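User: What would this chain look like folded?
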Amino acid sequence: MMLSFFDQFMSPTYLGIPLIALALSLPWVLYPKPTTRWLNNRLITLQGWFINRFTQQIFQPLSLGGHKWAALLASLMLFLITLNMLGLLPYTFTPTTQLSLNMAFAVPLWLATVIIGMRNQPTHALGHLLPEGTPTLLIPVLIIIETISLFIRPLALGVRLTANLTAGHLLIQLIATAAFVLLPLMPTVAILTAVLLFLLTLLEVAVAMIQAYVFVLLLSLYLQENV
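Assistant: Here's the prediction, encoded as structure tokens.
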């Protein structure tokens, strides 16, 4: 029986138990825990440098109230990067290709930023729905459009991450299948296809990291509007 290209995105099960929970817990096992020693090994030092640079880049424009989110967003960044990178390994499952999982990340965090804005500065938060200097006739229309755009934000976060990773995995599988089929028929074309596959894999590694960064960056921008 021929398998569909989309079968790779089905959540694997074993004895009726979904293994997505195992895939989600794996990143926390891979990262070393910081120690209280004065001297650390190279891996922990590199990990600490990366987290410090990331938090400085993300939270520099934010006020002090937004700095409370540093641990949460830095952990989310590492978590998403690890899930995306592990999904590029052969015979693995990528949980972030599931829209339900990405929406489970996006909706609560987006809703938390909105609630913080409504609680701390409701006038400023509601002011985003109506730009200054709007003509009187356009006020009802703009309020509706801005409200819709506000509620579309979590959907855009989840769909962007899902679509980019799904498209990349499909391209890799299509080109790998083409190289395998062309190998006995046209070896030269198959080798060129394999080179293209290698370059695409490098591109997907970059996409896996960039999409995790964009996800957290957009959340920080939403937070910046409300603190």
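The chain has a mean pLDDT of 84. If you want, I can go into more detail on any region.
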